[in-house]
Amino acid sequence: MRLLVCGGAGFIGSNFVRLRLRCSDDEIVVLDKLTYAGRRENFHDFASDARFSFHHGAIEDPAAVEAALDGVEAIVNFAAESHVDRSIDEPDAFVRTAAQGTYVLLEAARRRGLRYLQVSTDEVYGSIAEGSFTESSPLDPSSPYSATKAGADLLVSSYQQTYGLDTVICRGSNNYGAYQYPEKLIPLMVLNALAGDRLPVYGDGLQVRNWLFVEDFAAAIALVLERGTRGEAYNVGGPDECTNLTVVRRILSLCGRDESLLDYVTDRPGHDRRYSLGSEKVRALGWSAQTRFEEGVERTVAWYRENAWWWEPIRSGAYRDYYRRQYGTALG
Ligand code: NAD
Ligand code: DAU
Fold first, then answer.
1. Are 329 and 265 contacting, i.e. CB atoms less than 8 angstroms apart?
2. Distance between CA 32 and CA 25 in Å, rounded?
3. Cα angle for residues 133, 137, 143 (degrees, 5° grid)
4. pLDDT at 148
5. Burial degree of 100 (CB within 10 A; 0-12, 13-18, 19+)
6. Burial of 274 (0-12, 13-18, 19+ CB in 10 A)
7. Distance 186 CA to ligand 2 centre (A)
8. Residue 133: CB partners within 8 Å, gap ≥ 6?
9. Is 101 in the pocket of ligand 1 (CB under 6 A)?
């Protein structure tokens, strides 16, 4: 199959492309705006594959989308502004990409009669104190990030209901693994621990996340693309839930550091306390998570240790200004 993968230069998108090139005969066209989070470095090991091609452009630009669609049979949309803290400071790009961008892609899919997969998040359901969300739980997002993701999901569903477009939605829990930009909890803490910088824990650090190894999410997306029922949403939750403090302590230990590096900082506004997804629907398609958190976090720390070429240009560039603005302190 020839796929248009939007946002394929980011963390999950590039892991998905790598998986498809390795495990299928797919031809992959990536369309990506190359924001701070989208990097050609993420293609380093498959850039020369004859089944891979790259278009630089935004999903909200109809001409850029049209130019990438030649021969395409399905669209997989990862493209989004993805960081909650940035959405609190500057929501405008989140609205543009999620609303206008998703709309432009849906129109393109409608014109050509293409299958359309929207990559979404557990955050659209909001926080849950006990139990787990199912696909029929109400959407109740808390941040500009999650609200714009929920809006995009609703627009996708409307195209299915109104125009009969062949759509599916995958809602993943917190991903981690190789190639994740170090603004997110796990890579940020790994790089700070390796460098001996302080580890900023929001509030009491007892918020709970449902950790999903990125290769497991990529496999679920591939499966839903192939076998998912038209018009349905599928939750994809990780096998382990744990508090942020548990995660950070494990990283300290894997990096050979002690708790003196912990720094309790002001909490995130509107911070969701706990996410938890029930994933029975995607399991019924044949998916299960292959990587438990203990193994996945060890592999992730090892990857960051061994791939300084990937993160050093980030950590020594504009990211330092972002970090100072976000945390009120400089990296060492
Ligand atoms: P990321 O920030 O690493 O990558 C996003 C990619 O989208 C980047 O390559 C960026 O350049 C591109 N992009 C952004 N705006 C664009 C636009 N207007 N046009 C074209 N490209 C654009 O994000 P990620 O963590 O890989 O997340 C990918 C998707 O998965 C997002 O839709 C996100 O909401 C969703 N998701 C993420 C997680 C997670 O834990 N990271 C979990 C569940 C769902
Ligand atoms: O749940 C899926 C979502 O997971 C995705 O949709 C988002 O794209 C992705 O960014 C992620 O959102 P979170 O807000 O859960 O992830 P983040 O890595 O930003 O934070 C994870 C937890 O760690 C959260 O409770 C906030 C906390 N945290 C985060 C950072 C960056 C800290 O305590 N300190 C930090 O410095």
1. no
2. 22
3. 80
4. 98
5. middle
6. middle
7. 9
8. 122, 125, 235, 276, 277, 278
9. yes
CA dist 245 and 299 (Å) reads: 19
**What are the average pLDDT values for consecutive 10-residue runs of the chain, which has 332 residues?**
98 98 98 98 98 98 98 98 98 98 98 98 98 98 98 98 98 98 98 98 98 98 98 98 98 97 97 98 98 98 98 96 96 91
AA letter at 258? D
Cβ–ligand 1 distance for 84 under 6 Å, the answer no
Please indicate whether residue 26, judged by its CB atom, sits closer than 6 Å to ligand 1: no
Strand partners, 294: none
- 185-195 and 244-254 helices, crossing angle to 10°: 40
- Assigned token pair, 332: 């060492």
pTM of the shown model: 0.99
Helices (H) and strands (E) in the chain, counts: 13, 12
**Rounded distance from Cα 155 to ligand 2 centre (Å):** 25
Quote the longest CA-to-CA distance of the chain: 58
What is the pLDDT at residue 169?
99
The residue count of the chain comes to 332
DSSP secondary-structure letter at 71? Answer: T
pLDDT score for 332: 86
* Tokens read off for 269: 């506004």
